[in-house]
Amino acid sequence: MCKHYSEMNLLVLWMLVAVSVAEQAAVRNLMGEPDYRQVRLHWEADGNALPKNGFTVRFCELQTWGAQRCRNQSVKENAIEQNSVDKDDEFKAFSADIKGLRMATTYSFEVKVVKEEGKGREDRAEGDDANQNIIVIPTKGFSAKATQCLPEASEISVSTGPYFGGRIAVEAADGERCAVDGEPGSSKDTYTLRINHAECGSQVNETTVATFVLVQENLPILTHSTRRFLVLCSYQPETLTVRAGISLPTNNHSSHHHGRVQAQISPYEGEDNFVTRRSRTGRLLQKPEALVKEKTPEDEDPEDEYKSNLIPIFVITMLAIAGVIGIVAIALKIAGKRLIDELDDVSIASDLSTSSYSTVSEIEVISEKQSENSGGKM
């Protein structure tokens, strides 16, 4: 009796372990794709051990105080409308669209195997089950970006999702030109709002324009999905962008022409824009092909070559003339010095000649006096 009882316990224990292992291994690779008001889930299951009653997806809104508004959705292999099954040899891939969700809300998704007995357990509080196939996915919310920033007006593009029935407006602005109403019956998911700074009351200074934009899902009230955006644009007034092109001469003399520069000047339109933080979008200027083309010897102009050689020749000529003038000045200086020396020699010779003449005359006078004296005595 005891032996039979122990065998029954072992059998029950084995079955519980097998069921637990099957539950843990039934769902794998759970992932999701968020949208504005729905999430598409994907997972895989062992093709040889599929549950008879399919799967159930339990999803809840995650708030600060815990999980709220939990709901269940069944997923079966023979589902037709929203669910599909991809056939595979070893594993089968399942997908389920969970719709009716709220925008800009974080959800937890748990995929479990539906048990044959105790279906009431599906309504238990979260955490009582041992299945750990849980992922957390936030749904999409409103987003905005500035597409054009000018000193007088700005344009912003707001992504709202399809079938948007709310309103996009500049905060505290009364004019109809400062708001755009949604179209609930349209699948359009993006709206463009053009803001006139003077009419809509934007804050404008020398280089920055600041505008607050309010996006509401429901017009009468402000819900949790309502978003308030600060559109901040920076621009550079009175700045010009210059694009220049140059034509280089060729070696074809029949079509020879001098280099010509063409410039086109266009006002700079500030494309720098950002929402809630600064970001700049770089602009790429196209370089003219002539500016980056390498110049070859064949493209050189003989006239340009002559002009380039003219300056060195002129400098050499001026240096030669200066050298000749210097030599002439030195020669004149030497000749003048020689002339002065020769004049000094002539003066000395004249003095000597005068002195000699005086001496001879005196001797002759003395000799004549002596002869006279001697004649008188006789």
From TrEMBL:
Cited CDD domains: FN3
Leader sequence segment: 1-22
UniProt KW Transmembrane keyword: yes
The keyword Transmembrane appears for this protein: yes
Chain ranges passing through the membrane: 310-332
Keyword terms of this UniProt record: Membrane, Signal, Transmembrane, Transmembrane helix
Protein's name in the database: ZP domain-containing protein
